Amino acid sequence: MVRVVEPLDSSENRVSRAAAQRLSQYLRAADSVASGDGLVSSVELADAVGVSAAQVRRDLASVGHLGQRGVGYDVASLTAAIRRTLGVDRRWRAVLVGVGNLARALVKYRGFSAHGFDLVGLYDTAPRIVGTTIGELRVEPMSQLAESLKRNRAELGILTVPAEAAQATAEALVAAGVRGLMNFAPVRLRVPDHVAVVAVDLAIQLQQLAYLVHFSDESPDVDRTRLNT
Amino acid sequence: MVRVVEPLDSSENRVSRAAAQRLSQYLRAADSVASGDGLVSSVELADAVGVSAAQVRRDLASVGHLGQRGVGYDVASLTAAIRRTLGVDRRWRAVLVGVGNLARALVKYRGFSAHGFDLVGLYDTAPRIVGTTIGELRVEPMSQLAESLKRNRAELGILTVPAEAAQATAEALVAAGVRGLMNFAPVRLRVPDHVAVVAVDLAIQLQQLAYLVHFSDESPDVDRTRLNT
DNA sequence: CGTTGTGAACTCATTCACAGCT
DNA sequence: AGCTGTGAATGAGTTCACAACG
Known about the structure:
Chain A has 229 residues and is α/β, with parallel strands linked by helices.
């Protein structure tokens, strides 16, 4: 298991958003699918994730040449390469704004830190909520955001505020230097180009589900069993 | 259950998953964007949602011819048509299995019923949880699922169980007659073709965010500001 | 052999650009 | 004049199929 040279992997490779999602899925699947010898084939990954084997090979080839023809992919180096490509070969610091029910669930979500994300700050405007403690964190007032965010050097923001407050909150976070937002509010955020947004919109997902079911009625051939978004 | 006449809208139109998501977004945008006279143009919708105007026209044309050339789209009939296409021109009944923190947040989520989805049952296996009341619902034991689900005629299932339990739970729901699943557990569910699955996978979304930020560094041209997906 | 990596073909989605209505 | 609907052009993403290689 000679992590060979793999030196200056010059080509930090950009892939499409959809491809990045598939990479995440391969990452998760690789561990559990690995046959005893620490190897996986494109076929195994393919049906763990629900895509074609050709798709898997194409995706993995784009990440770097890490398969052995006739053999398969070494799980350890494969996952390392995917992590590097996705930018999850490090930890990320995030703050969360809007401490409602959803926020409380997120704070307690273990997978969060298990995947390399550390929640380092909670903020809210409501006086009843500010000062309370959730998990290990004390909720701070929004007024402290800028200063506090400087201190804890978070680069990501999680928005669990009501729709009406979302845009303003996003702007505050961006002004405070955040570079990416995960938005749970049902609105489209307008942010500068250098800020990334991932939206998790439950209402839209519900409608999507209704749509799929609605049609699996009328004609039994809509595809099923895929991820999100 | 005679889905009424529905005059001659012969073409119950099937669209791609991505297109369906955009339709949801137009639906949401239409209300707020409507100029006083109850009309919207493709351009207005386009920049409310963040897609091109041509895209909007293409999408809306596929739903039915409901624009007036030279005028725009009538918000009322537009939203009605989109709702019909998405299958959200009716209410849907859903049960939820796995009453943890996330479930509690979902139960209290108002948008749920506001969008036409009624939560009609909660189930869990843990004796400490069974029998407690959340919102207006009493948590029932999994053992009752089949019978209880028959009674309350739910057609959708929401999975907020731990990853290990997800597949088995999905199977129980499917066996009990559910036709669509919203899966919050970080695993791919294997279900029969006639059952639709929408996955909401936070870990993958987080990695997506990391990826986008990671690269907005290295080259400032990755697209941002889109939904999910 | 078995399995990857990849040109070439193909399919699906998006944009262009303009004819067609109002 | 303004804005939609849509053929045609383009582009992105996926699958085919096979050469390359351990």
